[in-house]
Specification:
single chain; alpha/beta; Rossmann fold; 6-stranded mixed beta sheet; 5-stranded parallel beta sheet; 11 strands; globular
Length: 290
């Protein structure tokens, strides 16, 4: 009986050793490949491109979208399509070992690239300043740039905290943010823009979550103190003039209809969040030193 048991244990040990060998041969290299910083990167989003530059990894960036125009040097990178319409052949020709995709990237394109053996990482949308920092560090980890990211994040957090402390005694200002025209589009709760408004001592009049169509009549009814226009693809000055026809609005009466740089609202890196917060604070609370 003892001989049979020893023989059985010996067979089991051999099986374990065989399985371990198979893992080391096939699986371990794959795991190491996932951990190894990417050497050739394609970015499918403007904010992702900017963050790669922020982390000092632009030498690894081989492809971007037509919307990746900041910093200026990004315009010299190979174009692989728009944010939603990706040229698969161009991406493959660049031989990337990593493609950074956004929530707007065509799921079919991502699936095709994965089937071709290209690593595609879905980068989530951040809903607030803390989330923006978390996503930035996620990208940094993939690139092996955690130390650089931690320094950038720590500096941004310190500056945001210092700015918000100056608003402790300030009263809340009601705000409406416009980001689209025909139809009129705004941003509600659960968004990084809403978080910036809160941090800047404001209160978003839109109680609903996310990006949504909004009627001018609803803005007139809720009568905000400030209107912020982020002219993404439309004439901001003309839209400002359109609002200024409504003399009964508090924002119009107080001459508090402002045009924001669209990049402050659509490319939320930790560094840009500080810049955006300062700009919004200036509009909402000009009496506070920034």
């Amino acid at each position: 009986m003892g001989r049979v048991m020893r023989r059985g244990m010996g067979i089991m040990m051999m099986k374990h050793l065989l399985l371990l060998s198979v893992y080391m041969l096939f699986c371990a290299p794959l795991a190491l490949a996932e951990e190894r910083p990417a050497g050739r990167i394609v970015s499918l989003g403007p904010v992702l491109t900017e963050e790669i530059y922020l982390l000092g990894a632009e030498d690894r960036l081989v492809g971007v979208t037509t919307y990746c125009t900041r910093p200026e040097a990004a315009k010299l990178k190979e174009r692989v399509g728009s944010i939603q319409d990706i040229n698969i052949e161009k991406v493959v020709a660049l031989k990337p070992d990593l493609v950074l995709a956004t929530v707007l990237t065509d799921p079919r394109a991502k699936e095709k690239l994965r089937r071709l053996g290209i690593r595609v990482v879905d980068v989530p949308n951040a809903r607030d300043f803390n989330g923006i920092c978390d996503v930035f560090r996620m990208i940094a980890k993939i690139l092996g740039k955690e130390q650089q990211a931690d320094a950038i994040i720590a500096d941004a957090r310190q500056k945001v905290q210092a700015l918000t402390l100056k608003l402790k005694a300030a009263s809340k200002v009601s705000v409406f943010v416009q980001v689209g025209l025909n139809p009129l589009v705004t941003i509600g709760q659960g968004s990084f823009v809403n978080d910036l408004i809160n941090l800047a001592g404001g209160h978003n009049i839109v109680a609903e979550p996310g990006y949504l169509q909004y009627a001018r009549e609803m803005v007139l009814n809720r009568d905000p103190d400030v209107i912020l226009i982020s002219s993404m693809g439309f004439d901001g000055e003309r839209e400002k003039a359109a609002w200024e026809r409504f003399n009964s609005l508090r924002a119009v009466a107080g001459r508090r209809v402002y045009i924001l740089d669209e990049y402050l609202m659509c490319s939320p890196t930790p560094v840009r969040c500080v810049t955006a917060l300062k700009a919004i604070m200036g509009y909402l609370h000009p009496e506070v030193d920034r």
